[in-house]
Amino acid sequence: MNQQIEDRKQESQRFQMRVLVHFGGLLPLVLLIGSYVRDELGFNPVEAALQKTGQIAAVFLVLSLAITPLRKLLKLPLLRYLRKPLGLYAAFYAALHFLTFAWWDYGLDFGLIWAEIVAKPFIIIGALALLILAVLAATSFRSVQRKMGKKWVQLHRLTYLAAILVIAHFLLAVKGNLLTLQGNYTFPLVLGGVLVVLLLMRLPGIRKNN
Ligand code: HEM
Which of 43, 81, 149, 160 could join 17 via S-S bond, C-beta 3.0 to 4.6 A? Predict the structure, then answer.
């Protein structure tokens, strides 16, 4: 009887976490569409949408990596239900970011897209990150996880590589001078700083103590 009550309690908590993560995951999209409809994206809405979808994807990606250390630190096992959906939302917004670039901005004109890639090689770094996120999303199902076993865990460590690539892509995308930090570098530097802390927490000596 007690076990049944415990199971039901856990199921209800899991449901609440799911509602919370989907609310948080879809809210930025609703706000972005709202800004567009109300004509509040500025004089260049495509560029604004490109930047916002990229920023949202980057935040979700770093958040998904922060879940495990936060779960251990705060001793909140329920947080584990957030990691996968946050990663999937990162991939979703990254896909929207790519569509905004290739479809909305360049009308799928591959000649123009190629010219832009040649002019801005940081796009290749973003494309590599997107490729990794797509593979991780495609293999995120529990059935695939069960089939792949240990290899799945190794494959999904690529999330860290994707995050490093995204921060590099972000830093290089900002209009300014990265060497003198003249430009709007606060956001990518803060996000990069969080990522460095998360990577340091994975070092064996530090990890053992957590
Ligand atoms: C094929 C894949 C990708 C393409 C073609 C692409 C393209 C671009 C372009 C053209 C910009 C410059 C926007 C501007 O300021 O005018 C940009 C910026 C950015 N991208 Fe990507 N990107 C890709 C992948 C990604 C991924 C996977 C992420 C994150 C998960 C991402 C996050 C960002 C961020 C955060 C910015 C900076 C936004 C800002 O200036 O505030 N990108 N991307």
Answer: 81
Q: How confident is the model at residue 210 (pLDDT cuts 50, 70, 90)?
A: low
Nearest-CA neighbor of 57 among 109, 81, 92?
Answer: 92
Q: Atom 24 of ligand 1 has which residue's CA nearest to it?
A: 126
pLDDT digits (tens, 9 = 90+) for 43-86: 999 999 999 999 999 999 999 999 999 999 999 888 989 999 99
Secondary structure (DSSP) of 57-92: HHHHHHHHHHHHHHHHHHT-GGGHHHHHHHHHHHHH
22 Cα to the center of ligand 1, angstroms = 23
Residues with CB under 6 A from ligand 1: 47, 50-51, 54-55, 57-58, 61, 90, 94, 97-98, 101, 123, 126-127, 129-130, 133, 166, 169-170, 173-174
Mutate to test the pocket of ligand 1, among 53, 86, 88, 97 (most ligand atoms within 8 A of CB): 97
In the chain, what's the furthest Cα-to-Cα distance? 67
pTM recorded for the entire structure: 0.95
**β-pair partners for 110:** none
